[in-house]
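Lab notebook, page 48
Experiment: co-folding of the full assembly
Goal: obtain a model of how the components sit together before planning crosslinking
Operator: M.T.
Materials (sequences as entered):
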Amino acid sequence: MSFANPWILLGLLGLGLPIAAHLLGRKEPTRIPFAAVQFLDANEPRVARRRQLHDRGLLALRLLLWAALIFALARPFSVEPAQLAVYGAPHDAVLVLDTSASMQLRDTSRSTAPRRIDLALERARELVEALPPGSRLALTTSDPDGPRDPMGAPSRGRVDAIAGWVDTESAPHSRPLVDALEEATALLGPDEGRPRVVYAVGDPTRGGLASLPSSAASGIALIPIDVASDASEHPLHVGLGAVTWQAAREVDPRAMRIQVPVRMQGNASEASDADTSDTNDAAVREVEVVLEVDEVEQARTRVSLRPGEQVEAEFTHTLIGDRDFARGRVHLNLDDDAFTPDDARDFWLDADASTQVVVVNGDPSERREFDEVYFLLTALRAADPSGRITVRSVAPDQLESEVDAATSGQAARPDALANTDVLVLANAPAPSAALSRAIEARVREGMGLLVTVGDRVTAPAYNDALGTLLPLRLRGASFAGTAPGRTAARVEGLAPANLAHPAFAGLRGDLDLGASRTTRLFLLEPDARRDVDIALRFASGAPALLTHEVGRGRVALITTSIDRDWSDLALRGGFVSLAERLVAWLGGHRAGASSAVHLVGARVELPGADNWMVSGPDGVDRPSQPAQREGSEAKAAAFGPLRQVGLYEARSRGTRGQAADDTALTRRFAVTVDPRESDTSYVASPEVELDDAVPVEGRTPRWRAFLALAALALAFEAWMRSRAAQRATAPGPV
Amino acid sequence: MSELAAWIPAELQGLVATRELTLGRAVVGQRQGSHRSRRAGPGRDFLEHRAYQPGDDLRQLDWRAVGRRDRLVVRRTEAEDEFGLALLLDTNGGMRFPGGLEPAQLRGDADHDIADLSQTKFDVARSIAATLAQMARRRRDPVGFLFAGESREISSHTLAPRTRREQTLAFAAALRDARPEGRVAWEHVLEAAAAELRRPCLVVAFSDVLDAAVPASTEADASAPMRLPLLEGLASLRARGHAVVLVHTLHHAELVFPWADDTVRRFVDLRGASPSVDGTGATMRERYLQRFESHLAAIQARCERDGLGYVRAVAGRPLAPAVATLLDTIAIREPGRAGPSSTGSKPGREVERA
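Observation: model returned without errors.
Model output:
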């Protein structure tokens, strides 16, 4: 056994202190031969205590305690073969350190346990010392903005420099280790005939060592170095997933429902074992989830979790006051967790429900009962007296020309659809290819799309233009009740709504559309591969309202018209509720939360060419940088990379002094740790066998045993002391 | 004579030269001596007139009294007898005090005028005993001695007073060889002494009387009667007609307890009878003095009750006053109270001038 801090062993000299003090203290007193001793009092207690060596056992125990503490502080370790192999011949090496968020995991839930990043740095130091003489080493991390230490002589100091950067500047990013390989091989430089090796130090997770290929590039060996010493050391931890929220209008116009998944992360095998065993109650853990708004606790709830299980925690919160936004935070009330970066999630709550709806009116009519826009506007205004939903009606060619102008960079507005929350194609002819691309791009970014059909809609053209966006491809228009051998038109009613559909969340009772009469509808091509939700069906079973999620956006398709051409749906009272909920759901998409949430390391694009000032979680204002938008010559601003987790607020510089809630010129977003980094379950990394590699000795710390011994001695000492105290207070024999 | 003179300190030499060892009462001796006898006989002091009886020595007729009374009257005079001196010396280990201690260790704040603190209690006993023996020898009185020591085999044959020169030599040798040590089994010693002392004599006992079974330190126990086997034995001798004087031999340090500071000391019993006591003088002194005083008072009370003479001789202080007091104590005893005929009578008044 060796010691990392051998000089601390000097503290063992302190063992002699109590003994020496006692020996000095019990110096033989002056001896007085005396004849009248019987007239002297028996030994007085004070003198007797000073004279005698009391409780030799207790003294020995305290000496043991002291010695164990000294040994523990001296950090003993034993040298054993490590799970580390280096090339035996002199070579050029690059050490890539995984600094992603999952490396913050501790082996145990104690806050004193080393993090995996600490273990990785320790491995890096071992490796530096183990490289054969003549080798050269470059250092880098998986952080795209991390330090790059070019090729040079290996030394611990260089690793210490990286360690200093990790402690002060590292961000909990989610970049897979494999993405750093290219930079690593670039650091290796040109092939000079020497062996070239990339050592990747990381954890055995999906984004860590498991993401690595079996070799870095041709002629370059890749040696993964696992910091988790064995597969059993993959502790369970509890984490929060991405927060989502959406308006809960059935509660209050400013209410919102906040949902956050809570998951106990662990190996799938452990989870399944726990499910099948009878004693899995022991593995159940109760955690408290707390919602804070503007740093004030609003609610807390408890969830029970088994390993590998995910439970959804839900809060409903109503914004009060004048402001339309608030700082939200959901966190776990945990004393100890092996992985803390995912124990809290920040997000902006935004009650600004002003939804921009653009309706492409494919069949304008002077008679309003034959105009889709009229019905839609009427329904939305009835449902939304506060006017938070603004509807703009455009002709199909008008929108196309706006989009064309935007893509060619002529218009002042960079994107005709940029501020559109919901686009309604109401009986519109199939959009042009350019418009289709713009629509698809925006839908993937989070825009809602509602397609209603009518006479102007043709199935092939729509399938060509928007086939990928539509929930199901269109087959063709048909009369209701049409069946082989029957030609007479009949009417079709609507079945009760599928209230489980998220668009109808919180709805009490039915939509009351059962009495509607539909004479014509579009039939659809069945496609089992598409993930489609059917919110409304006709009585015959044919889908009337289908929804579908594309990217971060939502798409809905109503298979009949919303004017009186094909159906009297729009005349029914339930249409108001249907239209309002559908638009709110489409416009709410994954709600403000996810739309304004970015992962650590991302760059944020801010609209317009203005300069922006971005205030981060640390309260420091930083300016944005000009950026060039891809595929466009329009100027834009960007901010990033975002390295701090928390809430950000960006204001256009030109707007200083104006009202803070001028949302048109204020952008708020949250930066959070990638929920995928929470998955720390063990994933086997590729096996690498190197003929020319020699194993390296590793240091196994042994101080824990001494610490345990000290704790044991302390407990025993306390027990002995209390027993001695009891004896001292007990009445003595008479 | 010179054998004993070696043990008599200079300050007592004067006393030996000027004072006589006289008893304050009449004695009955075996042989003629210099002490006033209770019986009539050849002597100087008038005893009584008695009517002539046939057979009386005509030389004893007091013619002047015959002339006054007109009948034959015989003048009787007091005889002068020898009187034995029995010296009983306690050689328990405590008599060795303060053997080995430096005078500086014994000197209290108020003891700067004390002459010789290194003098042991046994030194004092030896000096006074030698003085008394010398004085007795000068008057040709027999002297006996007994060194009461640890041994249960008491060689008490020397206690019977004798006038032979061998006795004096033996006494001188015993004074030289005596080593105070251990404890004294007083019951055995005094039993043997009683058997040895067949005729009334003057018994002078030298002891620190610390062999008493001292009770525990609690107040309740302190008031319990103490057993003092030496005093019990001396009272028994007194009851047999001997004149008994206790020379209570103490040391100055025992009376004043000079250790009053905070230094921790270990007090070791010189007799080996009690366990050692550790402590500071500051915490022990007051209690010690209180208990020791009450012990001394109890001894004096016992002596007074039992008709024993009591004189205190303190080592480290001048001896001459103590010896003078002792001689006075022996001399002022009322005449006619000793002897077998007075057994059971009220003892003479004891004077204590410590």
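Interpretation: The longest strand of chain B covers residues 32-40.
Next step: discuss with group before ordering constructs.
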